[in-house]
Task: structure prediction
Amino acid sequence: MKTQQLVLIISLFFIGCASNSPKHSSKQMELNPHADVSRDNVDKLYVVDCLLPGQVRALGRAANYITPRRPIKTSAIDCEIRGGEYVAFDRADYATALKIWLPQAKAGDPAAQTNVGEIYEKGMGVEPDYDFAAVWYKKAAKQGYSRAQINLGYLYEKGLGVEQNVATAMNWYRKASGLPDEVAYISSVELSAKNEELASLKEKNLALAAEAEKYKKQLRHAQQKLKNIRQDKNTTKEEISALNKQIEQLQVALKENKKHPKTQVVIKEVVLPATLPLPVPIVAGAKMPPKEVQHLIKKLNEKIKEKESDLRQQGLIIAKLSQESANFRKKISDVQQMQLASAAPNIEILDPPLSITRSSNKPSMRLRSIRTHQEIYGKVTAPAGLKLFTYNRKRVFLRPDNSFRIPVELASTTVDVKLRATDKQDKITELDFVISSPKRSAVAKPIFTSTLKRHLRGLDVGKYYALIIGNNLYKNLPNLKTAVNDARKTADILKNKYGFSTTLLINADRYTILSALHKLREELPENANLLVYYAGHGDLDKVNDRGYWLPVDADADNSANWISNVAITDMLNTMPAKHVMVIADSCYSGTMTRTAVPRIDSTIPAEIQEKWVKLMTKSRSRTVLTSGGVQPVLDEGGGGHSIFANAFLNALSNNDDILQGYALYRQVSNKVSNNSLNTQTPEYAPIKHAGHETGQFFFMPKG
Result:
């Protein structure tokens, strides 16, 4: 019997990054997925690395054995219920995470190897180690584990821990997608391409990378020493506390003994740790003359003074190591800034998409119909500042958001395009590709959307679900104007036009949001697909690349009630949903690039298109579409929506075909860029470390 695939969309409209001032809140729904989880311990809904106990198994009739302990990612409350061992979400670090996953990774498990790679890539309390991340990703990627292949492709694309090689990155992305060799991998292409000074530039970057690695090792060493000395300091404090308690008990025993001066003092209890060396042994139940007890108290007081001296010394060492760590962090930051400044410019083609095959390293843009002109839309990023950008040797001026639109005249069926970006340090990036048009005698091919409809018609893509969150009324932050209206309109379109089963949270606090996400994580079937829509205040820490959602009970200067994007990503990673898409009218940190997102080209034969569609519906995806701004901007065109929300809602309202996530991004990006006077550029990419493989999210109107 066919298992029904469930498509769940948690629509997240992220409306604002940071602010401060008060008002009230109103909750629309209350979710409590666990009786053991209250508002006071809602952190137990966060995902942790959990080491489950071994299970007792029968070995024939005569013997039993215990299986090895098993690592999983699950909520803290679930780990407790199942008798597992874990470190709390906000206390977990590099060492505790490796302790959970490393044994199984060494045993050859590709999922564990990928988790170890992600631990090294994240850093988790120390600087990321991309070299080790690449080593573990390669082990899992060679076993065909698509998540590792995607992560490894990203490292090659960005030159992290491996030599930068976009062709290698694309090949790993292709392997992860499962597309056959003869099929072009359709993608936006982001290249810091052929540089005239490439050899010297690489040499300089290698030297900087080596310098950064030296400081990272010194930082890790200092952090380990700091961790050890802090543990020693805590132990010293506990020992001083125990010594004071023991003295207090001995003094009480001496007082009681004064009533009978000739009898000996009885030592009722010993509270000192066994590891603490003492001048005189103390045994519970032992009898001692009063003078010996007084002598013992004197010795214990001397021990306290010795420990207090140790405590002062440990404090000085901690201060010194903390300063050393801060110095190493600054050195690492300075080197990274130098690396950034030495990086060549990036040229990215957003639309139309380019395709690359293994048989040809030159990208191509294949058009479906005969036309006289084709506009090319893309972006240029130059960390050192852009000096000059040209198209076929003609100067092109970028828009304020660093995007460009170039009308290309199609005088023949193949037109060569050469883009060249020169930064202020005279580093040069070139991107060459070909625009191919059908011959004038050729029969026009059917547009892709109708073909896609046909291919999807026979597939069980399941039902659609949406969790939609809209926050306007804040207790300690300024109120917002459009969030609730945007959320309600989104819920209405998704329900009535696309057949979504929607859950709407209005003015939700931290407990309600985490409970709703946890409930979905617990209840979704394996083939479910999810889209999250959040509208509310947020905050983005650019130094650490950390984004946060701010529920209605959040404070501006206290992050206790903030919800980090890292925590949300961990929840999305452990959800059984097949496809997850986040929509955010604000910041969402921790993404890859669009190069990792495969798209289909209508010029590909129908049987290959059908295979592509099946692969995309079968594979897991975790993607996010953001507005590119840090706060919602009211659309002057009316309707009470933000510019981004208005573009998003119009794209869904006017659509009558099967709509891919990337196609939605292209429509929204064009409109937002124009309506915001190029001050906002929406972004679309897979979410890092959320379990993305290669799938696509599809919007399908009813019927």
Observations:
- Confidence is low (pLDDT under 50) at residues 1-12, 18-30, 192-197, 442-450.
- The first strand starts at residue 6 and ends at 9.
